[in-house]
Specification:
A alpha/beta (280), B mainly alpha (358), C mainly alpha (312), A: 280 residues, alpha/beta, Rossmann fold, 6-stranded mixed beta sheet, 4-stranded antiparallel beta sheet, 37% helix, B: 358 residues, mainly alpha, two-stranded antiparallel sheet, 72% helix, 3% strand, globular
Chain lengths: 280, 358, 312
């Protein structure tokens, strides 16, 4: 998979060596003909797409196209009434969200879903929950294995805090942070789970130019340093062109295009969808 | 100037996550605990022990239990009285059936039984939230009280319908029954409360506490992280009921001496809820502050008019008490929903700068 | 074992069949009680529908209204004047509650508001007792608490008038909500405070109206219950009974409050009379709650409530 050209001043210039783009092999996530219905409203209609290992996939489309619904169905909040979802080659369609998390899928939300009453550090530590084993009695005494586990996980979380440059705010209650930092903390919480697949729902929404550059940098670093596969919903076309390997386009609950960013940009159906041509 | 952390750098995560990371705090707490054990037993008179300190500690334990469930896990419960009753009656049945069993063990077993009952009533909570859940706990409250009233087996067929704590001793010291001294009872209660307060603090600052707070703050996001809401809520119900059951057993055996179901009615549930709200939801310290507040207000209200020469009838005192409680609840919810604990935190932050203004 | 099964599943029905006129009397009593529960539940529904607040103090408002009415009558005011003054008092109370409790807490979550109403509950309890005294008072509204024979069945005059009044009031309120402009505005507010504000619906006024209406409903309920069993503290506990009614009927449904009330009222009475002797009586204390619990397990939104869909 070739690099998109690094344009001067572009947010995340893709490095030209090692670990970028999709690794060949079976896709990490396969969505096959998935349809989701809320009462009479058809939110997704026979959507099929795949997410390849190691890639950054952008999901775009006009408002109401069903992008968040797609992420929600992958996360297990909604169950499709037809179609399948396969993760790592195995059928995973009807799992509940905690089970999906156990598979190694983490996500962020469109309207930041941080735990407002907890500090940043605690929010990130909750992300480690699945990596921590239950030692109830020892927890109660703050002793031995429970204590060691807590501290080991603290160390890992601190690395993420360093990576995201949020050391100064680690003890602040999450609810009191400005919006841009909240989004970063939410990314941190998702990263804390050491996911194989990271789903980001509009990670740059409401950010200014510098914040977007920072966030793009983080996302690319996560992809290149940790090898995490990333699927993100995004509205900013510049960001999408810069950081994604492939782009999928949804409109009215259907996938209308899928491919490399340059091709999708020129696809007629996509242009129609965004410019509002009538739909047949 | 006195309360400053300058120069206290933490060089390990272990030190940073200690319960009292600031040295001044640690010193004060150690001194306070030692003083708590020594001073009242030596200095305080019967009245202070019996009417203030012992109930304060027992209510703190119950408030702690409710705080874990409502303040940390976000599950509102109006059944505290009922679960305390379970603890009290369970302890009574256990010790009368097995008189040779150590009474402390009996208390702990009573707590476990209350935990079991709590789990049972917690199962409906899996699908419902907010005040729907409160109704389920109300059902538990009324049903349990009715049960203890109607089934004479619980009171060992006593004609008076009350349960009375038989004399029991630990390490040779009588701590229950009519001959137990206030000092002995006080030390027992203090020891139990101190241990379980520490356990509660350890639970809430670790994995369990975080899972609870995640459910409380944003349960949908919690699921994304892998929290299993059912298990987490049930755990909260179980542990909370254990604490309330233990408090209930202490209530009968180490404070009241004998009790009937009236002692555990819905008013007790509200009282403990008030302690938690006023003291601070989601705070171990808050449970203690709230309990202290609720225990002291009636004493204050009865004594102050005397001191300034006003003689008020008892009924009026009760009514003023109700109004003051009600008013304070509203006041705290408006002004500082995080209660006295938060006010205390703010004070400490101001102390850091004192005597400088900023 | 068989005898237990018989006693629970067969015996009571045989008892019912053996004396149909008695059964009807029990049913009527249950319906009357049920309608009175509905009346109290209605107060909850009104406030919840319009402000999203579960008013725990509804029961004590019933008590407070009744206490004020009786207190004024004892001071010598004729009944109609006393009623008018009490109505004015309840409206004043609504103003005060909006200013002191609701407005400062307008953005808080439901649980905080609920707990504030618990505080309100205790405050009004103390306040009412302080103003009017704590002993049981008789409330005489001119309808005798006597039974008459009607078509061979004993019917209590007071209960029947109470039931009739409740039915009328419920119908009026139901129509009010569905048909009038204000009713629509109330439903909008219940749905989404901010959206309603943005359309220009005056939140403050709506709240005052609603809490006043709830206060008046409380007054009617207070008169009913007070005339029947005297005005005393236990009146406020009736509110706790209203909770199962709401669970059954749904928190936001006026017809639900009626149906729920009837089910609970009739169920309680039947349970107490026919199954009560089996377990030593006093089933009424917890029957309603257990029914509510069962509902919560299988249909948390009640018979008529809206299913809560959470958007992620």
């Amino acid at each position: 998979m070739s690099d998109p050209e690094a344009r001067p001043g572009a947010a995340g210039a893709r490095p030209s060596v090692g670990g970028v783009g999709a690794i060949s092999g079976p896709p990490l996530l396969m969505v096959e003909d998935v349809s989701v219905r809320f009462g009479a409203l058809l939110a997704l209609s026979k959507v099929s797409l795949e997410v390849r290992r190691g890639e950054v996939l952008a999901i775009i489309g006009p408002n109401g196209a069903g992008k968040t619904t797609l992420l929600n169905v992958i996360s297990g909040f909604y169950h499709p009434y037809e179609g399948r979802i396969l993760f790592d080659g195995r059928e995973r369609t009807h799992l509940a969200p905690p089970d999906v998390a156990a598979l190694g899928i983490a996500r962020t939300f469109q309207n930041v879903a941080l735990f407002r009453g907890m500090s940043v550090l605690d929010n990130l530590m909750t992300g480690r929950l699945l990596k921590m084993r239950g030692h109830f009695l020892l927890d109660a005494l703050w002793w031995g294995p429970a204590k060691r586990q807590e501290l080991a996980n603290r160390a890992k979380v601190e690395r993420i805090i360093d990576f995201l440059e949020i050391q100064a705010i680690r003890k602040m209650p999450a609810g009191k942070l400005p919006y841009g930092l909240q989004k970063r903390v939410e990314l941190g919480r998702a990263l804390a789970a050491e996911p194989t697949l990271l789903l980001l729902d509009e990670p740059m929404a409401g950010m200014n130019v510098e914040e977007k550059e920072d966030m793009s940098r983080f996302i690319l670093d996560v992809n290149s340093e940790f090898g995490t596969t990333i699927a993100l919903i995004e509205h900013d076309m510049g960001v999408v062109m810069d950081i994604s390997d492939r782009v999928a386009v949804l409109d009215y609950g259907r996938k209308i295009a899928d491919g490399a960013p340059e091709h999708v940009r020129k696809d007629q159906a996509v242009l129609d969808a965004y410019l509002g041509a009538t739909h047949g | 100037m006195i309360y400053r952390e300058a120069g206290q750098f933490k060089t390990s995560y272990s030190a940073d996550q200690a319960i009292f990371p600031i040295v001044q705090d640690r010193v004060v707490v150690v001194v306070a605990i030692v003083a708590a054990f020594v001073v009242p037993t030596v200095v305080a008179d019967e009245y202070w022990l019996q009417a203030v300190l012992i109930p304060f500690l027992i209510y703190s334990l119950a408030a702690l239990g409710l705080n874990l469930l409502t303040g940390y896990a976000g599950q509102l419960s109006l059944g505290t009285g009922g679960f305390m009753a379970v603890g009290g009656y369970a302890a009574f049945k256990l010790t009368t059936a097995f008189p040779q069993l150590n009474i402390i063990v009996v208390f702990l077993l009573a707590g476990l039984i209350a935990a079991g009952v709590g789990l049972l009533f917690g199962i409906p909570s899996l699908r419902i939230k907010g005040f729907y859940l409160a109704v389920a706990t109300l059902a538990a409250q009324f049903f349990l009280i009715w049960l203890f009233n109607k089934v004479p087996w619980f009171t060992n067929y006593a004609s008076s319908g009350t349960i009375t704590a038989p004399p029991r001793s630990v390490f040779g010291v009588i701590i229950t029954g009519p001959n137990a001294t206030a000092e002995a009872r006080y030390v027992t209660v203090l020891a139990l409360v101190a241990v379980f307060a520490l356990i509660a603090k350890n639970l809430v600052r670790g994995r369990v506490g975080r899972a609870w707070m995640a459910i409380r703050d944003r349960d949908i996001a919690a699921e994304i992280i892998g929290v299993r809401p059912m298990r987490t809520k049930l755990l909260a119900f179980g542990i909370s009921s254990f604490y309330c059951g233990l408090a209930g057993a202490e209530y009968v055996f180490l404070y009241l001496g004998s009790a009937e179901t009236l002692a555990f009615d819905i008013n007790l549930s509200f009282l403990v809820l008030f302690m938690v709200i006023i003291g601070g939801l989601g705070s171990v310290l808050g449970s203690f502050l709230g309990a202290a507040f609720i225990v002291l207000v009636p004493i204050f209200l009865t004594n102050v008019p005397h001191m300034i020469g006003l003689a008020l009838p008892v009924a009026l005192m009760k009514q003023i008490e109700l109004m003051v409680f009600g008013g304070l609840i509203i006041f705290f919810l408006i002004v500082e929903p995080h209660g006295l604990a938060r006010l205390w935190q703010i004070t400490k932050e101001k102390l850091r700068l004192w005597p400088f203004p900023h | 074992m068989a005898s237990v099964l018989y006693a629970v599943f067969v015996g009571p029905f045989k008892d019912m069949a053996s004396s149909p006129s008695f059964l009807i009397e029990v049913l009527l009593g249950g319906i009357a009680t049920g309608l009175m529960y509905s009346l109290v539940a209605l107060g909850f529904v009104l406030i919840f529908k319009a402000s999203g607040v579960f008013n725990f103090a509804q029961g004590v408002m019933v008590l407070f209204a009744a206490l004020t009415l009786v207190g004024l009558m004892e001071k010598g005011l004729p009944v109609p004047i006393a009623l008018l003054v009490t109505m004015a008092v309840m409206i004043l109370l609504a103003f005060a509650i909006e200013r002191v409790v609701l407005r400062p807490l307008v953005n808080q979550e439901q649980i905080i508001l609920f707990m504030a109403t618990i505080g309100l509950n205790f405050f009004l309890e103390g306040f009412g007792e302080m103003l009017w005294g704590a002993n049981v008072k008789r409330l005489d509204v001119g309808i005798p608490d006597r039974s008459v024979m009607l078509v061979g069945i004993q019917v209590n005059q007071l209960e029947m008038s109470a039931a009739g009044t409740a039915a009328v009031l419920v119908t009026v309120l139901a129509v009010f909500f569905q048909r009038t402009r204000i009713g629509r505005a109330l439903r909008a507010v219940a749905d989404d405070h901010e959206a309603a504000l943005s359309i220009g619906i005056p939140l403050k006024t709506i709240w005052i109206i609603v809490w006043s209406v709830a206060g008046l409903v409380a007054l009617v309920a207070g008169v009913m219950w007070g005339a029947k069993s005297g005005v005393q503290f236990s009146l406020s506990l009736i509110a706790l009974k209203a909770l199962p009614v709401l669970i059954l009927g749904g928190f936001t449904s006026v017809p639900g409050a009626v149906v729920g009330g009837l089910i609970i009222g009739v169920g309680e009475k039947l349970g107490e009379v026919y199954w009560g002797p089996l377990v030593g009586g006093a089933i009424e204390n917890w029957f309603a709650y257990v029914v509510a619990l069962v509902f919560l397990l299988f249909r948390p939104q009640g018979l008529f409530g809206e299913k809560i869909i959470e958007r992620v």
